[in-house]
Specification:
The protein has about 270 residues and is an alpha/beta fold. The chain contains nine helices and seven strands, in the order E-H-E-H-E-H-E-H-E-H-E-H-H-H-E-H.
Length: about 270
Amino acid sequence: MGRLTGLVALVTGAGGGEMGGGGAGIARVLAREGAIVAVNDLHEDYARATADQITRSGGQSFVLAGDVSDPRQANEMVSSVIARCGRLDILVNNAARLGRTPAVERMSDEEWHSDIAVNLSGPFYMSRAALPHMMQREYGRIINIGSLAALRASLNGGAGYTSSKRGLLGLTRQLAAEFYPYNITVNAVLPAGILSGRLRAEMGERAEALVATRRWALPDDIGQICAYLASPEAHLISASVIVVPGVNATGLGDFSQYRAMARQMGKDIGE
């Protein structure tokens, strides 16, 4: 029996199956831990790839297509899960918009608003829809998937991505403060890099090197962290921000490389 047996989870942006990214990995692991998982993505076929993968492995899952940036659809998705399962215990806000956006001086209003709509308003809409039910049951776990860009900057995502992910940290802490008395915890996981199935296949040996040196995470690595945060055992953890892989939180990167550089400069920092 898994640690999440009897619980119901909704994971947004979780499509793609074996070739998917962090959302697919989170959905897979939550299902392996016993949760019934509603797999959301913007496109039904993409969500179905993950849901089918889970059911083939013996888990319980169903498809929940919809746009998290639309408040009406957010309400409908949450209501659909509750109508089908009778409860919603875990919400993972993973859906995000990330692309090679232009520099600020060339960025359109539409690109800016699209980033904010999906990456920040989406988690707000989904959380707002789920919280009344969680408050009534006095149990809830909300996990917001952010990005290391929230603490630094993003080369690929640009100003809209970085700003929206930074805003997500503020939303995480505000929700954590307001709903802790209801046994609802809200935490943020900030991946520094996730090797999706597609990206891993494209990168080949370079991807394997990143995994071997623990520089980037695999989708199911993110899922393992979320599974613990979603569990009853994690009831004291709220308003936390977890960077994955953790080495990226230091600002130094690979410390062995830093140590070698420091020695060349004549610094004594130990072994």
